[in-house]
Amino acid sequence: MINQKPPIKKRRPKVTVIGGGTGLPILLEGLKAADCEVTAIVTVADDGGSSGSLRNAVNTIPPGDIRNCLIALSDMKDIYKDFFQYRFGNEDKEFSGHAIGNLIIAAIAEMRGDVFSALRLLSYMMEVDGKVLPACEEPLILQGHFADGTMIEGETAVVSHPDQIQHVTVRLANEDPTGPVRQPQAGREVVSAIMQADTVILGPGSLFSSILPNVAIEDIRKAIVDTPAKVVYICNIMTQLGETEHFSDADHVRVINEHLGAKAIDTVLINKTPVPYEFLESASEKDYLVQITHDRKGLAEQAAQVIGCDFLNIEKSGVYHNQDKLVDSIMDVMKDTEK
């Protein structure tokens, strides 16, 4: 009888995704289903809702985006995911609005002494296929800089300011004003995840409040510029009130490259399908948005390959990227890189 060698398992492509917000978990879930080795690097400058409240109350990083990324990469049963995601009702006083998962992350970080150790334990408990890493292991304050020279601190305050944001920086939330100034440092394994990836993805997510707070950390900025990986930016479909009014797709890429200090974006994924007029007219005034315009010349100046696709996925809650088409396009980019 001839002994047959076991088949050689194909290496999973390494994808590192940098961002935050609601779009990130959707992408992570799709990349996991496509059998990628996924690492999520998540912003820690959020100061709103349950995350912001816990950050101030127990001196920890905001856990909300991290919670959603853990769920997206988890293989545990749905009943346990539902438990982790459950939010207390408005009648629950001090616990109102808090997700159980946020409380668990904060508690284990305190028990283990740091958030990195807490996330390693949680990833094991939750059967996470991949890694979820905070961009920094200390909470950060987002600083918005405006054309008139004004600087405003705090994500909520920055995006509420009526003027156009020029650029953002971050500082440590727990900085001692009487001591030496410490610069935010990338969390453990963050730089190596960027440098060792086959593909690094920025977005989808809010430009100034989900993506750029990560880039504003010097270690991360330098790693994105220096990585041999292909750097892909997923451009938003709609403009965002308080951040990107009147922005084209080229404006988004230009602002990221300006924060990076180099034309480091290799590929831009843009939606080429018009958003129906009826949907735009039905949106409430508070959430009034317009579709991002296409600037072919401006994109050419940023020296990035442009891939257009029908990414449009309209739901009652808003306009999103179609998960399957987005992942298919990313996989195509990786295949072209391998050639």
TrEMBL record:
Keywords, alphabetical: Cytoplasm
Report the function annotation for this chain: Required for morphogenesis under gluconeogenic growth conditions.
Where mainly located? cytoplasm
Q: Which GO terms describe its biological process?
A: regulation of cell shape
**The protein, known as:** Putative gluconeogenesis factor
| GO CC terms of this entry | cytoplasm
Q: Which family does it belong to?
A: Belongs to the gluconeogenesis factor family.
The record's section on PANTHER family has: GLUCONEOGENESIS FACTOR-RELATED, UNCHARACTERIZED PROTEIN YVCK-RELATED
Instruction: Write out the annotated subcellular location.
Output: Cytoplasm
Molecular-function annotations in GO: LPPG:FO 2-phospho-L-lactate transferase activity
